[in-house]
Amino acid sequence: MGSLSLHSEQTCLLLLLCLLLYLNPSLAYSLRNCVTEYSEKPLADVVLNCANHELLTIPDDIPKDVSSLKLFSNLIKKVNKEDFGNLSKLRILDLSFNQISHLTQLTANIFQGLSNLTKLDLSNNNIQFIHSKGFQFLTSLQTVFLESNNIQQITDIQPILQLPQIQKLDIKRNHFTSFETKDLLFNGSSCLKVLDVSHNNLKRFSITTPTFPHLESIDLSGCRQTGGMTWDIPDRTLLKNITNLTFTNTLIPFKEIRKVLQSLDSLMDLKLNYMESLINKGLLATVCKIPTLKKLELYWNNVPNMSSKLVTCSQLSELDLSDTQMVQLSNGSIRSMRRLKSLTLENKFLTKVPDDIKNLYSLEILDLSENYISELHCEDFMNTTRLTELYLSINSLTKLDRCVFEKLTLLKILDLSHNILRTFGGAFKIGPPMLEFLDLTKNSLTLFEKGDFQGLGSLKYMDVSNNILRVKRSAFDGLNNLETLSASILYDGYYNFRGLQHLENLTIYIDLQVSFKHSDANYSKAFYHLKSLKVFTVICNSYHSGFPFDISVETFETMRHLETFAADNVYISAPDPGSFQYNMHLKNLTIRKTDLLDLDPELFRPIPKLQVLDFSNCKLKSLDFLAQANLSALRYLKLTDNEITVINETVFQSLPALTYLELDNNPFTCDCSNAEFIQWVKSNNQTQVVNAYQFTCSFPAAEQGKKLMDFDVQSCWTDVSFLCFISSTCLVLLTLVSSVIYHFLRWQLAYGFYLFLAFLYDSRKTKKGAPHQYHAFVSYNVHDEAWVYREMLPVLEGEQGWRLCLHHRDFQPGKPIMENITDAIYGSRKTICVISRRYLQSEWCSREIQMASFRLFDEQKDVLILLFLEDIPAQQLSPYYRMRKLVKRRTYLSWPQAGQHTGVFWQKVQRALETGDAPIDTNLLNGPAGR
């Protein structure tokens, strides 16, 4: 029953996969220049990647169901109307980093059919002009990128501004010298919300018409026109919805920028980066008077006493002072910011936590990354009890005090990565109690002891990789809700995952370059409590120079819910066939950098639900193991960087659900041994072979460097040796058959041939309707010629008056003998055969009687008279099949039986000649005449 249930389950799964493939058939394409990106969700949007292929034109084999198309970093110069005509489901199109010159050459209907397109990227091309109707069919378009082109006039972007759904337009790094709405040729308004005109060296930015009533964000960064940019917006209501404004490294007079800031009533987010000259002139005094301002970015401004200039900015909720080269934050400079919730101080110069932070009671996010802070004190975060995120990465912390995070009862994210921490000092034994994310990567931690994380009962994610750790028993006690753990562990037996009963994702980085004298033979028991584990990854960071990290069958025994297992540079040989006998829910299996030559297909028997298999860099030379494995649900197969030279197409017949196949970097053989695989790649409509048209030949030497898919497989179907074998066989059979036919059926064949000639002659004569020239044609042997002249002619021609045709007298000289015979027989009403033993032995006489007998049976008339000059017994007629058959079916005249009564004999001949063309009387064909 269990086996039946498992079979039913596999069948249902296979049917489901087939249904999903039917619903999303675009997953099954082997394209020449593109790759359909794999998704674990069969019904996910189809993303096609054609980037970095040096394409000159848009590929013509793009699946019609594609929703996102990546064509960036190619050499495309021109786009035709037909290129996107069938892509009605396309929503995202990326044509950046090509050589498209200008849209006027692409015709007005260039994007016809893309009515569902929402995002279009044409940045980094050579576009100069845009046709007035170039975007008319893009009724759903929301975002357009035209960065780094050659557009100069605002009128060129008018077709975009008029789109009904447009939200964001990026035209930075073009050649605009002014942006003035009065130059636009339409009186309506645009739906645009985000406008980026940065790095255009604008001399004038002017909005004097109600063109942008919904505009929320403007970026004027990098505008460095000589003399500075002029801001001309006389009516402040025209930009009443502006909430975000960016001036980064912008050359604008102090009076102009003050006018700008004073004219905006709704500004909430202001970026003044690389603007130190204006800040030194007192710009922040104006900024701090903007009542609606909530977020202020001031990074990369080297201004002395920067923080002291912010004293009056009490309304801010977010402040970024990164890279301002502040050695310290002036006391009292930000103390007044009672509403501040986010503070970023990535300065590279701070050596301690600024004192003012102690008074920021409302602070929720604090970023002190990339500084030189070496110590944390208990009072540093004493009053910032509302902190939920604290970033201290890339500092010089060596230790933590027990009380340092004691008051951070709401902290959820803590980043201590890239420090030189050696000990926690008990900091995590008492909290933070609400912490969910802890990053300790790349420190100098060496040992986890019991209770180190006792206070982190809410922790869900912890990363302690890039350390050199020994984990003692019960070190992870207290992490009752931990779901994801990444750890670098020395393999010496000192680690234990007791207490992690809710852990679902475990990644272990192993370093084997240690002594194994303390190795614990029961190391597999360390994983015994991971009963909830779904994803298990083991990565070895060092070379297998000694005892390997062996993952035994017992390691997986309690992982009954395991769905993904990955081992990178771990095994030195194929895993034990029974490794996954307890993991029937396994869906993803990855084993890389391993020698799998001795792989046993039984490894796959317990995991019938496997969908993803990655055996990259495993020294595989053959795929035969796939045909023996039970992988009916497999959808993704990756076998890159192996030693596969020949692939048998029949292997993939055992993988009915396979839709994605990667085989890059294998030494393929370009000869007829791969012909079926090449044909399969090109013709199958289910499996996409990624980058198949880029596979190169490694063997034979003459084909090295050529493309596998360019190999001419037709030559394999016309093998010369095989043709020679077939030809010689046919020749031998033909010789044998001909010999048999000649020996047994030569007379029948000859008869058939002459019958055919007679048929042709009869057809011609019938069409002509010519009268008979003779009363009878006399067929006789030359040895009987004396009897014909002495006995027959005097009676039949002399006495009875018949006109006879004799071959020596009446045949036309120079005419082919067979044609003379045919003319004589069909030119006479009757044929008289004078039969003797010599007659039967004569070849020409035989042909004459054959032709006459054909006329007899063809016309069904009494046209044949048989005269026997000799008594010939029936047994002597046996070799003469045609004559014996005629004698049995017709009456005949016998000259020896006439005796002295020759008159009666010739009277019977006369009566036979007088019968005319009457039909054959079958009743008379029963015996010899004269008997």
TrEMBL record:
Belongs to the Toll-like receptor family. PROSITE patterns: LRR (PS51450), TIR (PS50104). The keyword rRNA-binding does not apply. GO terms for cellular component: plasma membrane. It is a single-pass type I membrane protein. InterPro entries: Leu-rich_rpt, Leu-rich_rpt_typical-subtyp, LRR_dom_sf, TIR_dom, Toll_tir_struct_dom_sf. Residues 772-913 form the TIR domain. It is found in: Membrane. Keywords: Glycoprotein, Immunity, Inflammatory response, Innate immunity, Leucine-rich repeat, Membrane, Receptor, Repeat, Signal, Transmembrane, Transmembrane helix. Coiled coil: none annotated. GO terms for molecular function: signaling receptor activity. The keyword Nucleotide-binding does not apply. This is TIR domain-containing protein. Residues 1-28 form the signal peptide. GO terms for biological process: inflammatory response; innate immune response; signal transduction. It comes from the Eukaryota. Its main location: membrane.
